[in-house]
Design goal:
heterodimer; A: alpha/beta; Rossmann fold; 5-stranded parallel beta sheet; globular; B: alpha+beta; Uridine Diphospho-n-acetylenolpyruvylglucosamine Reductase, domain 2; Vanillyl-alcohol Oxidase, Chain A, domain 3; 7-stranded antiparallel beta sheet
Chain lengths: 424, 519
Amino acid sequence: MVLEDCRDDLEWCSRCSMCKFIPMEVISGYDFATVCPSIARYNFHSYSAGGKLNMALAMLDGRIDYTDKLVEMIYQCQICGGCDVSCKYNRDMEPMEALYEFRMKCVGDGQLVPAHMIVIDGLRREDNMMGGSKSQRGDWAKGLDVKDITAEKAEVYFHAGCRYCFDNELWPAARSAVGLLLKAGVDVGITGKEEVCCGGRSYEIGYLGEFTKYAEHNIEMLKVAGVKILVTSCADCYHAFKVLYHKIGKKLDLEVLHITEYLERLLEEGKLKPTKKVPMVVTYHDPCHLGRMGEPWIPWEGVRTKGSGMIFLHEPPKEFRRGTHGVYEPPRNILKSIPGLNFIEMARIRERAWCCGAGGGVIDAFPEFALWTALERVNEARTTEAEAIVTACPWCKRILSDAIKESGDRLQIYDVVEILEQAL
Amino acid sequence: MALNRNAYKALEDIVGADNISEEPAVLDAYALHWGLKAFTGNPFGRRHEAVLLPGSTEDVQVIVKICNQYKVKFKALSTGWGSMNGPGGEGVIQLDLRRMNRIVEINEKAMYAVVEPYVINAQLQAELMKRGLTCNIISAGSNTSALPLTALMGSGPTSNSTSYNNRNILGVEWVLPNGEILRTGSLGSGVGWFCGDGPGPSLRGIMRGYKSPLGGLGVFTKAATKVYHWPGPEVVPVEGASPGYTPKLPDIISAHYITFPSWERFTEAGYKMGESEIALACDKLPPWMLALNLTENAREGIRLFSEIRPQTVDKGISVLVVIGADSQREFDYKEKVLKRITSETGGEYLPLVEEPATRKKLIWHRVRATTGARETFRLMLSQGASFGSCDSWEFAVNEAREGARLKQKYIEKGLLVDDGVDNAWGTLYEHGHMGHMDELYLSDPTDPASKQAAFTLMEETTRACMEKALGCPQTVMGDRGHDLFGPRMNNYHLWVRKFKKALDPNGVSESTNYITVPE
């Protein structure tokens, strides 16, 4: 696919501005009505999905050429998918595809964001997005009595992901995840320092070649290891393994689960029993890649063609991913299973959740914008009077943590697994 | 034509470097409007010289004064849906009022709300509902500005109980094209926003009149809009995920989709419903739109339309009636009256909308006005609209009848989409005898014959307005249209030009889509 393939959608954006807001049906007040951090922060229409579609069409039609500002506008966006859900509440379009393709065109045309070049260079050298040394990738798991699937067989593979591996402050959550699996008697293994990036972030910033390379590597590794289930605590990795690999025609021949999905299963099977009270008021932040973007990929190949009665329809019929079937319930069900825990929802949840700010390469290239976005979410959480934000992704936890620190707030932040661990 | 550097610097000093742009990509994002594609084959209109994001009335006032000083034309937009928001000529700067997004006041006692231009209707309505109130939301959708001066016409699904924008305007803060701030209605006398007509200058007819001036008469920076009683909950709980939300509405808010055997019976029923004051909405949502409204993709919409066609299109003319009540007793009374009216006029309820889940979904879609883009743009076809006067109910119905009559031959020839022929959207106003109808039609802009049919139909409907005295079409914009209709309507165009000249002596408020004054 290339940007030109999105032309129909580029031309038929009606500039309704739905992409700037959560779906109209669920707006419950003046506050927290917006969904797109990019337009909310920078205000010009060009920052919204609609505006980016307009600019992409202008580019295809030769009306504009690259400038630093244009590239900046394309990348000052977490590519969080909020716009996609709101647009597709009413329309049969794929705005997110156009956003991805616009980035891939930038990379193809050599229009690179300097900060991303550094990250990609690190990826090529060290197989991670964090600039860390690959020799230290497995340090997070030191002392854990867990199998190494490069040396012995296991039924379940736990993929930690770059953020968990190289962000020391977050190690406890990754260790808790493995600890809970072991406690439930799961035959789980890791790859330690042999683990490599899932490639997902490189896809999102437009480097399809790198993404494909890492997808192929991981597929081969998993094939050799012979695991049946891949579990990850990182929403970005989950999205890559489950959605993006399938999207590029490399669907994994195993079950991909987010840790919350697997833990929910273990709770249902009675293999984990939360009995200790956790007397805390918490709210839950849906990671975009687990929620609205985490719904399964639906392959479709065809055309939009004029049929009888002058109506243009997709042939064969196309089923759109509208954010309906993301992973929303498992983390909530885990929280609801914990004795003494008081769980309160924020205004923007599930498919219309506000992004944490870290995604799409924004945390690397535009850290202030990432922090601004996270602060918005912290403010929203504060209105619930919760003591803690609970989430299910290390990228969210990192930036929300930074925002809490920046704001001087007393809010705590946890991963779902850390809360569950307290209850066992 | 680049903007004079001194002018640019002066403007930048007002809004700050982050809130002004001459970047070609930014300008093209503002230059694209879907409506242009149907007319010119190119969705891009003229580029602005710059786009500015003022943050306050004071910003706007200084910007307008600078524009007068440097003879730079300006045009403001709020949410910006529609090609009329773009500049009609060269050398224009765009004011995007996005940063002016505050609800200034909600006065529950006097029943009005004061908003800035970028408060959207969904936000305002949600806040009002918490206070047992609601507002008129234009049929385009709640994703549009709540300022009652922005929409072209200003009627919406609940206009039967919430009136329409022309009538809902109360006090207004208006930056005139010369940079002066004018406060109209009671606001002009410093006694609050509660009245549009005084004590203080009214100017409602000049300021908005039959249609909005489409950005051609300065900038409306704040306005009060009348608000109305809402019989539903403070917050409508909505379960599920997009797009298949399930709203939880009380049973004493209900709806029926009623098909009448003839235009005459339909007209009669409308009058009776107005007189009885039973309906929260008397919303002529045509079956085509109903089908698209209730489905989650285009294919499903087409399928549902085929399914309900025998019960609606083939049987007559349909309307959606929403009943809202504060008590069971009131509800029972209203339901009974509606049944009586339906029976007296030969109407039939559509079973589909009698299903509770479908009914609740539909009510919320219409009360919140969430599906405008679904009903009009999902099929990715060019949509035209004709007629659209605000006049007596019978007059409005006659517009729809004529629209359907003129349209039919093009549908039979396969040049326009078969939307059931009568695809007029309309509403009763204020439980009264007034109403609105605009006939919609869909063409394929990639097919020259279809495109031509749409143009010809528009010309025919315009001619019908003149020859059959069916009012001034809502699509009349710009000099050509006004010069055509003005002489037939008390030479209103001459007056509009005089007002324009008086209020905009330097001609800086860009008004190609409104009316221009020859040099």
